[in-house]
Design goal:
heterodimer, B: mainly alpha, Rna Polymerase Sigma Factor, Chain: A, Arc Repressor Mutant, subunit A, 2 domains, 0% strand
Chain lengths: 93, 194
């Protein structure tokens, strides 16, 4: 039995009909996509805050370290100065 | 904002969640429809549709207007994901006709419902046996109601190539129907002749 292309097309039109997703699925996925986008935004801000915080902590730590080094150098300087003062007086005796 | 063209929304979507939301609303049904016919299962169609839009959301900032519409870009994501899905499963899709007819709003009339069931089973079986690109073409043409030019943009072919592939596909379907009838099967198709 011979069929024409038009007949085949007619059957395909009747069989392959558009199918709709459930409204619950559409809404749920929309919410999830917006949530993902929101989370991404939040993550970016978290990253910025953590980065800035780390930089401040590092700067504060470096300031403290610099002060400690300067204090140590000062103590060493005072000690050396006193020692140098004592040595000529011993020699005079 | 509902009458804003897709490309404008795509440009905004990288920074405005609402713009991507509108793009989603415009295209989710068609993408789902395509995936449903390629997988034959509502749960798989939902899962893959979600993955399509999650991937689109991740890469929407990189979308460039190269003359291909945003919808074609989405379909290409869907095509790739469905191809991977089939590769993973390494089995042919099975469209459950009960679900199919119940969930199609255009077939609520009892007569068209019965017709879809009768003719559909034989024809869908034949469509499922076609090579992947021919199945894609038929689904995009009939279930998605796209023109040859639009299908060409999605499948990366010229309009002429799609037209030619379509006629070859119809020809091979016709041969299959005739073979099926010669073997004494496809009664539903025979009844609907003419």
């Amino acid at each position: 039995m011979a069929f024409s292309e038009e007949q085949i097309e007619g059957w395909l039109q009747r069989v392959l009909i558009p199918v709709e997703p459930s409204p619950q699925f559409v809404n749920r996925l929309r919410g999830r996509l917006v949530h993902v986008r929101g989370e991404r935004g939040a993550n970016l801000w978290t990253l910025v805050v953590v980065g800035v915080g780390l930089m401040l902590i590092m700067a504060a730590w470096m300031g403290l370290a610099l002060r400690l080094i300067l204090a140590l150098i000062g103590v060493i300087g005072v000690y050396s100065h006193r020692r140098a003062e004592r040595l000529p007086s011993r020699a005079a005796r | 904002m509902t009458d804003v063209p897709d490309l404008e929304l795509v440009r905004r979507a990288a920074t405005e969640p609402e713009a991507f939301g509108l793009l989603y609303e415009r295209h989710v049904r068609r993408i789902y429809n395509y995936i449903y016919y390629r997988t034959g299962d509502h749960h798989d169609a939902e899962d893959l549709t979600a993955r399509v839009f999650q991937r689109a959301l991740r890469h929407v900032g990189a979308f460039q207007d190269m003359g291909v519409p945003f919808s074609a870009w989405l379909y290409r994501i869907a095509l790739n994901l469905v191809a991977n899905w089939h590769r993973d499963r390494s089995r042919r899709p099975v469209v459950p006709l009960e679900d199919h007819t119940v969930l199609t709003p255009g077939s609520q009339h009892p007569e068209s419902l019965a017709m879809a069931r009768e003719v559909g089973e034989d024809l869908l079986e034949l469509v499922r046996r076609l090579p992947e690109e021919r199945q894609q073409l038929l689904i995009l043409k009939f279930a998605e109601r796209l023109s040859n030019a639009e299908i060409g943009q999605i499948m990366g072919r010229t309009e002429g190539a799609i037209k030619s592939l379509y006629h070859r596909t119809l020809g091979s379907l016709r041969e299959e129907v005739e073979r099926m009838q010669a073997e004494g099967r496809g009664a539903g198709l025979e009844d609907r002749e003419g």
